[in-house]
């Protein structure tokens, strides 16, 4: 699946090397925490706080929050070869006349998968996000897709946007041999250490576990990571975010594994529901399990979803309709939203919608479709705040 035959010039090749950030095993150490007698629970000093890449903050400081974004990552793991006739456009530099093709075939161009090359453009976007009323971004890039917390820290400093980084591992196809061989205990230690001590050999600490990647069916290695996630969450009282496989029953299957391993579903976000559950009855059944319900592909409108052609990717209007449905059913305290930007073409630099699309275009639409301002504030401010606050 991983393509390495890109006809790159020297500079591009150099940047790709920079993107291929390898995760170093987390350092083992003593956790800065207290084990309460008679309880297996380890409470950290993070209780009541949110942990950003610049340190712990009061939850009231977060403001409007996108709960699932990427500011720097590489998505080479999920390259999807273009149709034979599209080879020329797929390998051409990104320019105006290719943008519609790219929008419909985002995973068929190697160039498009290297969001990690666009830090300057992302910085501009974050400054615009602040001007648009945004406060916080959950940057849930995990091991396997080139997490780069040093860049996140710099972006947070230079833009004033609170950034929360993600601990743990992405989908099975990105797990290293070393990861696959690890026990649940070892995986748990790594995740806990990424939250308490720092990530990828730095002192930058994660404030959420995830996005934890799962495929469908869920693989053995992914099951171990899910159990480790639940164990780490039980120790830390921290938020968790999950990437489910592309099957309507996948989210419930993940929740069951987490639950059985002692995870806290009320502090867990289930991502990507827009491309996973389509039947309203099935959605309500899943909602009863108690996780946060995330619609996080706002701005992504394409005819053929290459990873699963049976899926009709909803339009933004359809997403808003689904949010209104969930609000009417009483789930306004459980909804969170985002864009999940993970390719270049979705940045405004490349004619895309950018990180401020929800604030500038989707919120006004929500207000005309039966969702009131108080409910919008819950979805953008209150729900993310409660989710991100350590117990
Ligand atoms: Zn994502």
Structure description:
Helix content is 36%, strand content 13%. It has 391 residues and is of the alpha/beta class. The chain has a single domain (50-73, 117-388), classed as Alpha-Beta Barrel (TIM Barrel). It has an eight-stranded parallel sheet. Strand 6, helix 5 (149-159) and strand 7 form a beta-alpha-beta unit. Helix 4 crosses helix 5, helix 7 (184-196) packs across helix 8 and helix 8 packs across helix 9 (250-260). The chain is globular and about 50 Å long. The N and C termini lie far apart (40 Å). It binds zinc ion (ZN). Zinc ion binds at residues 68, 70, 140, 211, 340, 342.
Features:
alpha/beta; 8-stranded parallel β-sheet; two-stranded antiparallel ribbon; 13 helices; globular
What number is the mean pLDDT? 91
State the order of secondary-structure elements, H for helix, E for strand: HEEEEEHHHEHEHHEHEHEHEHEHH
- Cofactors and ligands: zinc ion
Per the CATH scheme, the topology name is TIM Barrel
GO molecular function: hydrolase activity; zinc ion binding
Binding site for a divalent metal cation 2: 211, 243, 272
Family: Belongs to the metallo-dependent hydrolases superfamily. Phosphotriesterase family.
Protein name: N-acetyltaurine hydrolase
């Amino acid at each position: 699946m991983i393509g390495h035959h890109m006809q790159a010039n020297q500079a591009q090749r150099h940047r790709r090397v920079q993107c291929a950030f390898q995760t170093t095993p987390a350092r083992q150490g003593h956790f800065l925490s207290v084990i309460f007698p008679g309880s297996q629970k380890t409470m950290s000093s993070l209780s009541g706080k949110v942990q950003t890449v610049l340190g712990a903050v009061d939850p009231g400081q977060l403001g409007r929050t996108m709960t699932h974004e990427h500011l720097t990552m590489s998505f080479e793991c999920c390259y999807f070869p273009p149709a034979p006739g599209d080879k020329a456009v797929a390998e051409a530099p990104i320019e105006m006349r290719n943008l519609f093709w790219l929008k419909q075939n985002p995973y068929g161009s190697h160039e498009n998968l290297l969001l990690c090359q666009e830090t300057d453009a992302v910085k501009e976007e974050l400054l615009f996000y602040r001007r648009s009323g945004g406060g916080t971004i959950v940057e849930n890039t995990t091991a396997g897709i080139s997490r780069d917390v040093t860049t996140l820290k710099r972006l947070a400093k230079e833009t004033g946007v609170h950034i929360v980084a993600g601990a743990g591992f992405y989908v099975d196809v990105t797990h290293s041999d070393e990861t696959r061989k690890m026990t649940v205990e070892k995986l748990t230690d790594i995740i806990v250490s990424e939250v308490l001590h720092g990530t990828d050999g730095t002192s930058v600490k994660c404030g959420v576990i995830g996005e934890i990647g799962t495929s469908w069916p869920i693989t053995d290695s992914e099951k171990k990571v899910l159990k480790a996630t639940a164990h780490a969450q039980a120790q830390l009282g921290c938020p968790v975010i999950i990437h489910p496989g592309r099957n309507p029953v996948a989210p419930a299957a993940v929740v069951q594994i987490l639950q059985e391993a002692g995870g806290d579903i009320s502090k867990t976000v289930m991502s990507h529901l827009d491309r996973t559950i389509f039947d309203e009855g099935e959605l309500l059944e899943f909602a009863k399990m108690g996780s946060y319900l995330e619609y996080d592909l706002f701005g992504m409108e394409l005819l053929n979803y290459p990873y699963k052609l049976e899926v009709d990717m909803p339009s933004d209007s359809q997403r808003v309709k689904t949010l209104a449905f969930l609000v009417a059913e009483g789930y306004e305290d459980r909804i969170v939203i985002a864009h999940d930007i993970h390719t270049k073409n979705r940045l405004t630099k490349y004619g895309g919608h950018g990180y401020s699309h929800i604030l500038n275009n989707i919120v006004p639409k929500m207000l005309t479709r039966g969702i009131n301002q108080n409910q919008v504030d819950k979805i953008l401010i209150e729900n993310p705040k409660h989710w991100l606050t350590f117990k």
